[in-house]
């Protein structure tokens, strides 16, 4: 298979600390690839290496099937990016900021107006960026990343600092990019919920290691919600369910159900009530990202 | 590409006072002599038969200091434009080579300092004529005094650009700048190999042009070293 981005054994060490370990990133064309991991997992470090801002300690990077170390400039012509906190020149206007990038990229001036329109900054285009709100600055750097109509867009936590409506707006924009412009998007985040809503593929990184990489559907299976049940005499209730052959777990006074269709839940509740247990709570627990990490890493260990 | 980078670098200098500083340096040097000659012109004109020579001598006392201060301030300005929101990562993720980005910064700074040197020549000449120092204008001396320090100061410029672009701690360029200014101020006691002495054009051979060639040669070496180190490092 041809990948837009493919890394092999990518590693980065800072002194004694290895921030990225043997990463095998594979991003198919036309995907929105969600790059997920908690703070300090190595997302930004990976992205910096993909953009040639940092040299890998070892491993290789191919983008558009070209070797990054050999053809960096020709690759970067077709890449748009946003790394960590927004970078801009505060003493210049939004228009001048984009013009400074446009000149280097060598794209027509009309692109400036187009991207300003895309992120809805046209009205303030000639005001100094110094006075912008955080959300406006973030939108400006997103506009900047789109200037050269990139084939690959790399966004490191692009919704940082945006309010809920701004987040939705950017999310909708990112979702449209692959179908409307044929872009492939790499978007990093530490929020599963955010990735969940826009990504079509997911890579999860934890302490520098890729612990999961697949389609979003496959991940959803891992990230299944749990049903917890609290009843009188929980432990005995749990045992009674076991004897009836139900798939259940018991932890800290709560019963967890493995099967989660409405019918299954109803059946379990029914049988408990029938056996004289009082049901206090039936709750759906969305597993946090951290839980999924734990689950996935423990699975890795078993293999 | 380098032409486009230069245009962009000049664009980023807008509203930052770069041009004002470029003007202020040479103006300050001549303004000190305006005060000096304004207060005691008659006395100063008695000091020597060669009024122009004496006047140029007075000017050159302050030129090295203004030059080194200018280098320190301009390099820290140009680095701060990129450091302020860490725009290096945005700039260097564009399809440009790090070498040309560095070359562009150096060219801008050298250009501004060269403009300062031209202004210094113009201001020196104008005030000299205003003072009525005589018909025989020593053109060669005037040009030497205005442009030799620029070339002799290139190593300091190359060193400062390197320090300002690679240090993550902004205290370092400032510290080096302060030390350099002190060294320049006390250049007469320094040995010839100290680069901060070179803009004074003094050396053991009494041959100012040696400082010019040294400045260009060592300046080039320091420039290349700084550029290669900048390119080798991970971007901030
Ligand atoms: N320039 C550097 N020098 C030393 N250590 C670094 C450097 N950059 C990153 N690290 C370390 O590498 C690890 C990964 O950092 P990175 O910024 O890639 O994480 P991240 O996944 O982007 O986290 P976040 O969600 O907080 O942005 C961290 O432990 C960090 O301390
Ligand atoms: Mg990060």
UniProtKB/TrEMBL annotation, chain A:
<keyword id="KW-0547">Nucleotide-binding</keyword>
<dbReference type="InterPro" id="IPR027417">
    <property type="entry name" value="P-loop_NTPase"/>
</dbReference>
<keyword id="KW-0813">Transport</keyword>
<keyword id="KW-0067">ATP-binding</keyword>
<dbReference type="InterPro" id="IPR003439">
    <property type="entry name" value="ABC_transporter-like_ATP-bd"/>
</dbReference>
<protein>
    <submittedName>
        <fullName>ABC-2 type transport system ATP-binding protein</fullName>
    </submittedName>
</protein>
<dbReference type="GO" id="GO:0005524">
    <property type="term" value="F:ATP binding"/>
</dbReference>
<dbReference type="InterPro" id="IPR003593">
    <property type="entry name" value="AAA+_ATPase"/>
</dbReference>
<feature type="domain" description="ABC transporter">
    <location>
        <begin position="5"/>
        <end position="232"/>
    </location>
</feature>
<dbReference type="GO" id="GO:0016887">
    <property type="term" value="F:ATP hydrolysis activity"/>
</dbReference>
<comment type="similarity">
    <text>Belongs to the ABC transporter superfamily.</text>
</comment>
<dbReference type="Pfam" id="PF00005">
    <property type="entry name" value="ABC_tran"/>
</dbReference>
<dbReference type="InterPro" id="IPR017871">
    <property type="entry name" value="ABC_transporter-like_CS"/>
</dbReference>
From TrEMBL, chain B:
<dbReference type="Pfam" id="PF12730">
    <property type="entry name" value="ABC2_membrane_4"/>
</dbReference>
<feature type="transmembrane region" description="Helical">
    <location>
        <begin position="210"/>
        <end position="231"/>
    </location>
</feature>
<feature type="transmembrane region" description="Helical">
    <location>
        <begin position="102"/>
        <end position="127"/>
    </location>
</feature>
<feature type="transmembrane region" description="Helical">
    <location>
        <begin position="147"/>
        <end position="164"/>
    </location>
</feature>
<keyword id="KW-1133">Transmembrane helix</keyword>
<feature type="transmembrane region" description="Helical">
    <location>
        <begin position="55"/>
        <end position="81"/>
    </location>
</feature>
<protein>
    <recommendedName>
        <fullName>ABC-2 type transport system permease protein</fullName>
    </recommendedName>
</protein>
<keyword id="KW-0812">Transmembrane</keyword>
<feature type="transmembrane region" description="Helical">
    <location>
        <begin position="171"/>
        <end position="190"/>
    </location>
</feature>
<keyword id="KW-0472">Membrane</keyword>
């Amino acid at each position: 298979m041809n990948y837009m981005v493919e890394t092999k054994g990518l590693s980065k060490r800072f002194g004694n600390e290895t921030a990225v370990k043997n990463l095998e990133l594979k991003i198919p064309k036309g995907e929105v690839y969600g790059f997920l991991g908690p703070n300090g997992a190595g997302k930004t470090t990976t992205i910096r290496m993909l953009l040639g801002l940092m040299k890998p300690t070892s491993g290789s990077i191919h983008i558009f099937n070209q070797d990054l170390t050999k053809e960096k400039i020709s690759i970067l012509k077709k890449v748009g990016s946003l790394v960590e906190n927004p970078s801009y020149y505060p003493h210049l206007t939004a228009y001048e900021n984009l013009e400074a990038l446009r000149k280097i990229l060598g794209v027509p001036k009309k692109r400036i107006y187009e991207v300003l329109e895309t992120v809805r900054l046209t009205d303030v285009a000639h005001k100094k960026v110094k006075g912008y709100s955080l959300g406006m600055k973030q939108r400006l750097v997103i506009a900047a990343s789109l200037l050269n109509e990139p084939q690959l867009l790399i966004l490191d936590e692009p919704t940082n600092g945006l309010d809920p409506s701004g987040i939705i707006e950017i999310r909708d924009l990112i979702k449209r990019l692959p179908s409307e412009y044929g872009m492939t998007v790499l978007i990093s985040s530490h929020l599963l919920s955010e990735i969940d809503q826009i990504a079509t593929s997911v890579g999860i990184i934890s302490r520098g290691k890729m612990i999961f990489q697949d389609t979003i559907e496959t991940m959803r299976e891992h990230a299944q919600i749990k049903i917890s049940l609290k009843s009188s005499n929980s432990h005995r209730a749990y045992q009674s369910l076991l004897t009836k052959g139900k798939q259940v777990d018991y932890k800290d006074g709560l019963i967890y159900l493995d099967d989660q269709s409405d019918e299954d839940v109803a059946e379990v509740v029914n049988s408990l009530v029938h056996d004289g247990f009082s049901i206090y709570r039936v709750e759906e627990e969305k597993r946090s990202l951290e839980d999924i990490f734990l689950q996935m890493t423990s699975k890795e260990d078993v293999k | 590409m380098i032409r486009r980078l230069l245009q962009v670098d000049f664009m980023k200098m807008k509203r930052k006072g770069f041009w004002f500083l470029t003007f202020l340096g040479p103006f300050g040097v001549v303004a000190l002599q305006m005060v000096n000659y304004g207060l005691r012109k008659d006395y100063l004109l008695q000091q020597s038969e060669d009024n122009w020579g004496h006047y140029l001598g007075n000017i050159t006392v302050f030129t090295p200091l203004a030059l080194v201060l200018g280098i320190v301030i301009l390099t820290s300005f140009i680095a701060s434009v990129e450091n302020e929101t860490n725009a290096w990562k945005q700039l260097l993720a564009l399809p440009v080579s790090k070498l040309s980005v560095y070359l562009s910064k150096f060219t801008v700074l050298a250009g501004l300092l060269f403009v300062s040197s031209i202004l210094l020549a113009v201001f020196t000449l104008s005030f000299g004529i205003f003072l009525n120092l005589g018909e025989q204008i020593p053109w060669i001396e005037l040009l030497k005094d205005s442009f030799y320090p620029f070339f002799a100061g290139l190593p300091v410029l190359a060193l400062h650009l390197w320090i300002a672009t690679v240090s993550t701690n902004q205290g370092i360029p400032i510290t080096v700048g302060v030390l350099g200014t002190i060294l320049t101020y006390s250049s007469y006691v320094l040995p010839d190999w100290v680069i901060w002495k070179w803009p004074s054009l003094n050396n053991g051979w009494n041959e100012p042009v040696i400082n010019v060639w040294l400045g260009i040669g060592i300046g080039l070496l320091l420039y290349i070293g700084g550029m290669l180190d900048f390119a080798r490092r991970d971007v901030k």
